Amino acid sequence: MGSEWIIGGIAFAVGAAVCAGVLFIILRNKINSIPKSYSQSVSFITRYYNSLPSLLNTTKTVSFLLDTLLEYPSVSQVKLIKYDSEKISLYPDDTPLTLPKVRSTIERYLSYPDDDRFDLEPENPLFALFDAEGESVADTNAEAHIISISLMNTIFCLIIYFKKKFRAPIMRQAIGFIKNQIVISLYLNHFSLQHKDDYEFLDNVYFKGPVAMGITDLNGRLTSTNKKFSELFPENIDSMKEIIENDVFQSILQGNRFEKDIVHNKRNLKIQGFPSFSRDGSVKGFVFTIIDESIQYLLYKKLEVSENRYRMLIKKLPVGLVIMNKSGTIYFVNDNFLFSLGYAEFNKIQGREISEFFDFDKEDYRKMSLEIEKKDSLYIKLKTLSEYGERVFSVNLRKIFLGEEEYIEAVFQDISLENALYSQLSEKNKLLEDELKTARVVQEHILAIPTLYTAGVRFHSFYKPSSQLGGDFYDILPIDEIHVGIIIADVSGHGVSSSLITAMLKILVEFAPKDPHKINEMMNYLNSGLVKVMPEDHFITLFYGIIDTQNHSMEYINCGHPFPLIYDDISKETTILSKGMSYPLGSFKNLSLDDAVQKIKLPVNCKLLFFTDGLLNFKKERISLSMENLRNIFTQNIQYQTREILPHIYLDVVKNSTQFTDDDVSMLLILLNKEWQYKKLLSIPSNVMEIDIAIVRVMYEIERHIKLGDDDKWKMYTALYEAMINAVEHGNKYNVQKRVSLLYRLIKDWAVFKVRDEGPGFVVKEIPNPLAKENMLKPSGRGVFMIRKMMDKVKYNALGNELTMFMRIRGE
What we know:
alpha+beta, Beta-Lactamase, 6-stranded antiparallel sheet, 33 strands, about 35% helix
């Protein structure tokens, strides 16, 4: 038992001597490396020796080491964080840390096992520990050192804040030594707490330490080694002089720090030596630490080879690479970039501004730099100046760091050929778009419903193609005074091919027989004509019906088209016209439709909804819109004004869908009302050619009931023409899908006309007076002025899109 106490005491003395000796060398070198005016460091050495007996079992050692770092002029503050699974706190005063993201930041650093030092940016959560009392964060640098104490199962993070303007040259070495002393002190403190009355912890630290250590006498003969030393030198060397030169020992005795990299038995070793002191302060031997850096050396060599290969790779990159500073001065370019500008030597470009080669100035570059600061990277397109061929480059700029300096890396890819091809493609696409727009206008004219003179019938249409051109078709065919034909069709597919078939269908409908009592003849005519021109994989679904406004009935044929809906204005019920279904047109050459004719009785006042299957292709959770759902939507939207019903139906279908259709959508709303038999209503497309025909027809109908004088005819024709041309030109903007309505009626010797367009209207009060001197050469306002002169009374609605005119018939 006594021998164990003796061994423990010896181990304790050796450990104390090692700590004192190492710290003495560190501090002495520190003082020799900085100006002598910093004499306070000397007082810390004195205080260390005076405090040595009380340091071994307390945290004062760590506090002393942290205070030592603060003696350097370049150090502003020092923080030591203790990290474990339970909490994070400042060490050694054990103050808890509640700042956000500190734990996650340290854990992120721990994920890099090969790194133990990290530079801190001002936005780093660890930087927030800095006490900015009289000091600016902008003038401060910081770095974090990770210290892992495996025996304590604890991580320490040493954070040192430096003043940017001053850094002592000894600083890096001092940090390394003091960090090692903190590790040793923490080990000593840990074992002293476990072995309060026993000095065996010194043996544990020494023998189980992570670094190979050997203790020698003054002659270099090894007196003690730890386990790591034996593993490193299995040949059992007796003296350190077998590894290092003899004069090293004398140099250490003179107070010089010894550190050397050697190769021994094909191993790369880093050796550090320190004097070992006795109680009276004299040197009694030496302490050596040996680190096997063979793996690190091999990695370094591989890295060196990789770096050379990387340099060659950069030079031979198939894209241009430029590194420049934040002001745009070129720092490095590769061969590809030199070749792009017609240079062969780097020194012809180095140090010049990037704006000397490309079509942008320094202000543009400054703005790009600011964008990179915000986004970290930026993609732009640049063109070289004319002397460099006006070549076009796609450029990817990003922020990089070379050491502590910030630079901008730019990767240039020559896209001159692609840009030229893209320009040509854009021009061709523009021509194609223009042609498609023209074709769209033509198709809109095809879908324009002609003037309807049949009393008791009104209508509204809705068309939404899936692309510029669609394959839907609808039309209203005035047959005679009491019969009107309704046709709606859908060509399979959509796009240009379907639109061409639609145009062919329009031509066939124009020349088809329209006898209201022989509806099957028209269908047979259409089928025989379509079979000749349609591709084999195309067909047309079509519904054709003839409405008898006098008997309130409809005779129809349904060729594979969706069933129409009928809303009874009196009973408020909506029914599906599901009776009768035949084959689509164009599918069979000898298709006979004689037996497909159906006839139904219509409500006196009702609304009929015809539509194409694009409306039913909307889906909700992969389920298509059903006829029952569409019937409910139709019924719910009857409350709106008639011209708003179709847009609201489409909007409701879209709102209740999760998957939109890629097909054309067309709807046709037919309104029947017996009261309209006594009101004459014309609805013409926004086509100037239709105006004169409509006015002549109206005046003919009026003269059947009342005699018009020449003056009456001239005034009536002039006023109606001006009103309707304004509606077409200014209201509907010549859009043939929008219509102009003309309602007229006779009350004794008065004629009342109401002209309405589908435009946004205008402010009537803002119409200029055409007789005013300043407006003599202006064309606006003359039509309204003439109407007011021709009619006895004129008034507009609030929007300005409806004009009501009153004219007294004076006869001859």
